[in-house]
Structures are given as C-alpha cells and as structure tokens.
Amino acid sequence: MKAVILANGDFPKKQNLISEILCANFLIACDGAVKHLKKISKEPDIIIGDLDSISKSLKKKFSTKIIHIQEQETNDLTKAFFYCIQKGFKHIEIFGATGKREDHTLANIFLLYHYSKYAQVCIKSDFGTFEIHNTPCSIASFKGQQISIFCLDTTCKLTSQALKYPLKNLSLKNLSQGTLNEALEDNFKISSSKKTQIIVYKKS
Amino acid sequence: MKAVILANGDFPKKQNLISEILCANFLIACDGAVKHLKKISKEPDIIIGDLDSISKSLKKKFSTKIIHIQEQETNDLTKAFFYCIQKGFKHIEIFGATGKREDHTLANIFLLYHYSKYAQVCIKSDFGTFEIHNTPCSIASFKGQQISIFCLDTTCKLTSQALKYPLKNLSLKNLSQGTLNEALEDNFKISSSKKTQIIVYKKS
C-alpha cells in the first residue's frame, strides 16, 4: 500500500506521473496543492496544512477532508508525510515537491534524509526522481540514464561502479561535485568509506 | 562593471529581471539558453558551452560569438563564469540557473561556494535570489521578506538577529532546517561559532 503526497510546487504534466496520482491508494494534498486535482478529475483523501494557500471555495468543498495543523515548525509536506506514517504507510511517493520557490525545492529534497528514517520515500517530477539510499547500494537505472549523486556528509568518500565518470574514493566537497553522471548499465553501485546516505537523482 | 550569465533553466518572466538582462554590460548565454534572448530582442556578447543544446540555426547566426569548450569536467555555467573572470569581471549575476532539471538547479546553487572565491556572485529567478555570505554578516532585506539560510558546514552553529524564527547557536543538520524564515527589519544578521559561508535565499 502506497501513499501519494501532492505538494504545492509544479504539478506534473507527464501522463505516467498523472496516472500514479490517479491510481494512488491514498492521496494527500498539501494545502493549496489541491487546486491541481480538479484538472485530472481526482479528489484527495485528505487535505493537510496550515491552510494559508487553499482557496475559500475549495476549503468549503472539501471541508470534511481538511486537517488544519497550525504549527509553523514544520512545512506542509512534513505534516502530510507524518500523517501518512501515522496511518501506517511504509511507501510514500511525493509529487509537486519541486518547482516554483527554490528554497522550498531544496528543503523538500533534503527532507528525504529525515523522512527515510520512517518509510521508503521518493520525490517524482516531470524531469526526474530523487531517491535516498544507504551505502553500500545497488541502484536500478538504464543504460545512458543521466544520474546525479548528492551526499551531505562531506567527510565520506564515495566509490562508484558502472557510472560513466567514476567516483574513486571521492568526497563530494560541495553538493555539485557528484552531479551530471551517466549510468553505463541497468544498475550502478555506490560504496563509501563509512556508512552514509546518498540522495540519487535519476533523469526521466 | 557587471557581467550577466544566462543559463539554460527557466527564463525569467518578471520585468525587472528582464531589464537587468537587457541592460547587462556583458551578457554570456550558456549554450542553448541563447534561444530565450530572441523574445526580448537582445543579442548575447558571447555564447559558451559544449554546444549540445543550441540549434543549428542559432549556431550559424551567432557563429562569430561562439566559444566551444568541449571538456565535460565542468558544466556550461562554470565555463561561462570563468570566462567572465578571465575578462576581469568581479560582479556576476546569473539568470536561468534554476527550474527544469532539479539536479542542475542544485548543482548551480551550490556552485556559488566555488564561484564566491573569485567574484561577487548571485543567482536570480522570478521567485527569489540566492546570495553567498561570509559570516559574520549583515544582510539587506525588507520587513516581512521570506528568508531561507543554507549552510553545508553542519558542524558550525549559527545565531541570527532580526529573523522571525531566531537561530540560537543552531547547527543546520540537514539543508532544510534553516528554511522558511522571515526578516523582521530592513536587514538581519548571522553570526557563527566559526567562520563559514552561508547561502541566503531571499524571496522576491
């Protein structure tokens, strides 16, 4: 059983992503993100957030589905994520987490570090997918797929197998150094000098 | 004298940003990004990159302005940046660095750490501006401006003045913890437990 969260960034245009939203076992919209669902004739199971971005008419229409959480310590995506965890979901896909305000995009991507303690989680957009992996790991890909690797632990040295530009015991000193790589086969491997977590971006 | 670099992400829509591109002392387009300039009736001074995304017709039209750099160790933005440095520019503004592929967005934002060794540099989009500052620092803002702080050095503890949600000797353990703050006055201050650099996002 998989939950889908729709955050308030760019709504996907690609049909395979829209199909995933349409077929979600459980769909939570973050606050004003619910406005995008009308155009795909889908209703959310729950709307969650501090309700600063949903329109009055949608608030009225979905009044029985709204969970208003006022606290400002966490963003709406985190409120939605932990609602799913409380409901018992162990597999959560997030759409609309990127695009528009870039600080939201960054925050949402690196919240994967936090979320991954509680569930299998990824972020999907028209451009690609962010996943989080514990090293050492073998990651599914396709030959020629554009890959970027991000690691916040700059003391950790990474080594790759089956990437076009190999990482050889390399610490990614800023977040740009592991980007714009390419998979050579239908999977690639990352190992590291100590156990760590990496965020992997796969271009669609 | 200020150089403007146009990267190949989202082209700005806001008139004040378009005016900055129109009035640039020196304008470099990264590869295929040059296609956006036609709609604002502006020609670049230079087009730089590995030329994998510019159209044949634009390549022909601007043949005398193209600098083809094949090496794949750096991205087109970095090629453009160091061309400006060689030309003697000490103030560089980057547009089109965000939007579209999210791994490019991340790489471009965190390249500010690298670029800041050589020039005063910022990234501007329709949504906001990324700047990089050495701590301690006083940063211009306006009352109510939405602010996010990013710091890759997770061992460094930050303290703020004149932010709505104060940082009190806080290490930003992942990149999300310093986001979604708000300026209380027309500037705010960040100090730190040791000298470091922070990336500051100011919503427009």
UniProtKB/TrEMBL annotation, chains A, B:
Domain Thiamin pyrophosphokinase-like substrate-binding, first and last residues per copy: 128-195
Domain Thiamin pyrophosphokinase catalytic stretches: 24-119
Keyword DNA damage attached: no
Superkingdom: Bacteria
Top EC class, one word: transferase
Transferase found in the keyword field: yes
Protein name as catalogued: Thiamine diphosphokinase
InterPro entries documented for this protein: Thi_PPkinase (IPR006282), Thi_PPkinase-like_C (IPR049442), TPK (IPR053149), TPK_catalytic (IPR007371), TPK_catalytic_sf (IPR036759)
GO MF term set: ATP binding; kinase activity; thiamine binding; thiamine diphosphokinase activity
GO biological process, one term: thiamine diphosphate biosynthetic process
Gene3D superfamilies: Thiamin pyrophosphokinase, catalytic domain
Keyword terms, alphabetized: ATP-binding, Kinase, Nucleotide-binding, Transferase
Enzyme Commission no: 2.7.6.2
SUPFAM superfamilies named among the record's database cross-references: Thiamin pyrophosphokinase, catalytic domain (SSF63999)
